[in-house]
């Protein structure tokens, strides 16, 4: 619409002020003019006041626009929440233009309130708005309503201090017919508040989690005054929304409390499956974040960053803690901070190596790492600490930083110099980090004098906010013992080719594929030759790709006496196929030793890296074979009492969640060999409860197979404490596994399980939704009655059929009178044959005596001019009498209907004849009954159906 047209429209809307609408409403003043309608404050002739939303006249003749406009009344009223503007009436004015009569609001939009405060709200107000907004969405989503345009402009702050959500005009009801849904590729909404799936126009993927993304974006905007995605134009923001992950709140607002950052970042996740599953879950977490923010000394009410604590202030506040204590107290949040910090610090180290110390690019990257850490300290107040291993840094055996060459020497030098742990305390200064970085990356040959090592460098630095823990030489043995250990370590490393992670992977890969490359064969020959009689140090250097002067920094680690050399040469003279088994045996023995020392992670961590790094078409099969070889080796070296615990520890250490997802996909592939399936099941049985989320997700979308049964057994065994992860599967899960997972939750019986079971109300399968209500609150609950009533009125026949099956299965007696009226109504003949049969069947299950009378009435209802649908109904009545009939009246009616008379069509006569045969076959036995309700028997829950088949669900 060009400017002149907009001005004409504004003038036309303003000109209506003071006029009457339908001789009832006086338009007092104009409240706003939008692209589709204008809103007026109006007074009724009886003195009541309201807001009238009047469609622009040029749209009145466009039926699809009018339909969308009037849908707002239906959608808004259906949610039934005080936070949604009440729509009291809809009508058409004298010119034929539709309008809505709505609750009149006095106040300002949240967007205007933020603008008046410099573009943002104080933190307590922004979080309160978010909580109220989520409360409204809880009610809307429960009714299947997705708003799809949540933003500050559509949130109204009334003068009474309440929040109202506006403009449900483009909201979608999940039960809309497919032909009426928004077409894929069409974009509606506001770019700055669109989740990726909405920005891409993928409307089938837009659901409640899309609204939660918009809530996260709204709170992000109110707290920071910025959009999640930056861009100069709406088109640029739209492209960014569709293609880029959202910025972290922690980056845009460094002073934000950690829990609040976690809540908003989860809501803004690019992947809908990693967002909050529902509005209630997000609201509860946001309430906790608000409570934390209210007492957070690191941020004021507007979230501004507080000053960093100086070293002197910290020294006065508390004694310097022990590094070991800090390691034990490390939270998940602090671990995450440490991991990100080392990612940034590594970039600074690489820049120093590339450009040289003192270069501005190296300084810039180091300042970036410092700023991130300082902001994290301000937000949480938690120090970070880590253990030193020869291959990397860890926290509780979890890899924190595993650098690749040449930075891997940082970890090795620290470890070999006796440093076992480091920590950084809040208050760290930039000059301290600069000095620590210099020490970490110092070149031992040119920057460290012969009499110094890392310990002396750390001692001389006299850090205020860096702590370190040095190994106790008495605890680790004398110099002779340590030298002997280094010698043995070197021999094992060279023998099994464990010089680098690349060699480790190559050794295994070559064995797994029954062949070795020429390069690997050459290295093996070089090593064999050296052990048999050559220079051990030179051979080790050649085999690992090093220059002789670089080999064995601690001396000639392969200086072996001739007798031992001969024995080793004989043992190493094997084919490449045997390398994998020998390596597995050596690694398993090392794991058993580490396990007995209480540090299995020393061996498991690099092995897990190897498993994760396997790639190629056979990667998953290789990974399973690798794990099996190692598990077999552990079983060989462990005692009988240790075997089960050690094997379980090994498997859990080696199988990461990412690799497990790949193993699952490979195991369920149609062409998967049985050996791979059997190994997968064996691994699954040894896994602890840390994999419930991926296991439940895989099982919920898997077709029936042996693997699914084992996945469901795993979920059942580890369900407690993971109820929410199970509940998250219902939104997209298949019918049978969803019913099985629901049964797991109900059997668990915990409050968290009951809450997770309620998430099944979001299942696309009607029977799952009814199962959830029936199992959680029982067949007498108001929820199941309301749900069944709504389903019986659904547009989708499959939904109505499922409701009828549930009525019979749960014996919902209150549905009986309405069901009788439905069967006897003229509309009954218009339903599908399957739905009519299910209705008659459900009626019998509710009240057998009343059902027979209804069957007789239907069979006797002949028409002067019979129709095909009505004759189908009569035939169904005859069929039911043959299956259920008890009385002599039933036999008499069937005999009459089977005779060739003018009022009996061939369809009815055939059905009556077959019914008489069925009745005779039953003899004096009870009528045929339906299967028991779902979950009455063991195993996966059955779906109640007369035919024994699950109902089709077209949605």
Would you spell out the secondary-structure blueprint of this structure?
Blueprint: H1 3-15, E1 20-21, E2 25-33, E3 37-44, E4 49-55, H2 63-79, E5 87-92, E6 98-102, E7 107-109, H3 110-115, H4 123-142, E8 145-146, E9 155-158, E10 163-165, E11 172-173, H5 196-199, H6 208-224, H7 234-243, H8 249-252, H9 258-267, H10 279-295, H11 311-317, H12 323-328, H13 332-355, H14 360-380, E12 384-388, E13 393-395, E14 398-401, H15 408-416, E15 419-424, H16 430-441, H17 454-461, E16 466-470, H18 479-495, H19 501-512, H20 518-533, H21 536-544, H22 562-572, H23 579-596, H24 601-613, H25 619-637, H26 640-654, H27 657-667, H28 674-686, H29 692-700, H30 706-717, H31 723-727, H32 735-748, H33 751-758, H34 766-777, H35 782-792, H36 797-810, H37 816-824, H38 833-846, H39 848-860, H40 868-884, H41 888-897, H42 906-922
Antiparallel strand pairs: 1-2, 2-3, 3-4, 4-6, 5-6, 7-9, 8-11, 9-10, 12-13, 12-15, 13-14, 15-16
Helix pairs in contact: 4-6, 4-10, 6-9, 9-10, 13-14, 16-17, 19-23, 20-21, 20-22, 23-24, 23-25, 25-26, 25-27, 25-28, 28-30, 29-30, 30-32, 32-33, 32-34, 34-35, 34-36, 35-36, 36-38, 37-38, 38-39, 38-40, 39-40, 39-41, 40-42, 41-42
How would you concisely characterize the structure shown here?
With 955 residues, this protein is α+β, with helices and mostly antiparallel strands.
